[in-house]
Amino acid sequence: MQEDERRSTTLMGDSPSLPPKGSNNGMNKSDPNLAASFPSSDEEFNNRSSNVSGYDLNRMSGEASPMAMSPWNQASPFQPSPWFTTGIDNSNDQKTGTQVNQSEGLVGSLVREEGHIYSLAATGDLLYTGSDSKNVRVWRNLKEFTAFKSNSGLVKAIILSGDRIFTGHQDGKVRVWKKNKKDPKNHKRVGTFPTLFDILKSSMHPKNYVEVKRKTTALWIKHCDAISSLSIDEDEGLLYSGSWDRTFKVWKTSNSKCLESVKAHEDAVNSVVSTKSGLVFTGSADGSVKVWKREGSGKSMKHNHVETLLNQECAVTALAVSETGLFVYCGLSDGLVNYWEWEKELAHGGLLKGHKLAVLCLSSAGSLLFSGSADKTICVWKKEGNMHNCLSVLTGHTGPVKCLAVEREAEKGSGEAKWVVYSGSLDKSVKVWNVSEKMSPEMKMGSSENIVRY
């Protein structure tokens, strides 16, 4: 009963996470990732503060990334297939090696031995995974389908659009890949944002340089720190990239041009989400969530700041917008999820209390919201009107849950919405879950695992 109460929804109440707008005293400038060390036991982990490491204005991500210093980050040379898959077998009568296809809960795992899982993207039966090994791997039905490698730095964000794959990297660049229509296993890099030509052209004009830190300037079309988030507006052909350099940039996907760079926050931009209505939401380690409105097009395009939804001490680590566009969600480093209601002119709707430590990722699908946390769990929230209830808790990861991807399961005539959920963790694994809108309160890893190495 206490566990259910802990994961209940608190609505329309005053909370330490929601001081009055404009209050920013004692700001905790935090990095979206975790601190450089992890406790050795669950008890130590649960008693640890959820605030993350401080953001140094003069630090570039490549110099002292928290992940680079993490003892979880044990890089190894690229190998042909350093993964193994695990299926779940809950029957003592079945022989080891038989995979069991569960209707709900954990289906299987992809365990990586190269490093942290930073990013996921799914489409149909394909899953793309990015990590600090510089490799993007593609999976189908829990088996490795293909892979392609970038000589750039760890892959912090992946987004899919048709036959193109956009990847955001630690070196501040966006790379574009395209699948071969005749051979879908073959992926070729077809572009980089910004292009070398645009960099050379812009560098010839002093007006194209902006100050990025004290006595240091850089071209405005380039990110000078790691890309943390990507979002795409396919109708307008625009790609948005958020970065630890405190800006978000707007790119034309058809020609790789940077249309605008917006100095959005006083600390790292951890998440950017664009919507079809022309609004863009940004969340930052400075504790704020801002709303921007797109006006104009082409070279005259401009994003104007129209509202600040949140301004407080805890770092904003993740953002998500519901499929209907009626709810905007924000994950915080104190383990809470805030949400706002579009129909009430983005009035604050309430808080979701389900995690003991920082919320690291959010994903919305249908009437469900998924929140992954440093406490190693994934909460499944269901919207009912303007209320949210914790439908289930997915457990099984042994490290913080860093990224999520959700795809609708193929229709089987039941009429009930079912989802395939992929969760990437700092335990170097990706887990695959089947989730319906009527799940039992707690879904855990099976009593035994079947491991297939290849």
Helix content: under 10%
Rg estimate, integer Å: 21 Å
Question: Which sequence of strands runs across the widest sheet?
Answer: 30-31-32-3-2-34
Q: Report the major sheet.
A: 6 strands, antiparallel
Helix count, DSSP H or I runs of 4 or more residues = 5
Helix/strand structural class: mainly beta
Beta strand count? 34
Which spans have pLDDT < 50 for at least 5 consecutive residues? 1-33, 35-101, 443-454
The fraction of residues in strands falls at: over 45%
Shape: globular
Q: Roughly how many Å apart are the termini? A: 44 Å
Mean pLDDT: 79
Explain briefly what this protein structure is.
By secondary structure, the protein is mostly beta strands.
Describe what you observe in this structure.
This protein is mainly beta and 454 residues long. The protein contains 5 helices and 34 strands. The chain has helices spanning 2-6, 42-47, 61-64, 66-69, 196-203; strands spanning 9-11, 83-89, 105-112, 117-123, 126-131, 135-140, 143-149, 155-161, 164-169, 174-179, 187-193, 209-213, 216-219, 227-233, 238-243, 247-252, 257-263, 269-274, 279-284, 288-295, 302-311, 316-321, 327-332, 336-341, 347-353, 359-365, 368-373, 378-384, 387-394, 401-408, 418-425, 429-436, 442-443, 448-453. Strands 30-31-32-3-2-34 form a 6-stranded antiparallel beta sheet, with no helix packed on it. Strand 4 (117-123) and strand 5 (126-131) form a beta hairpin. Mean pLDDT is 79; it is low at 1-33, 35-101 and 443-454.
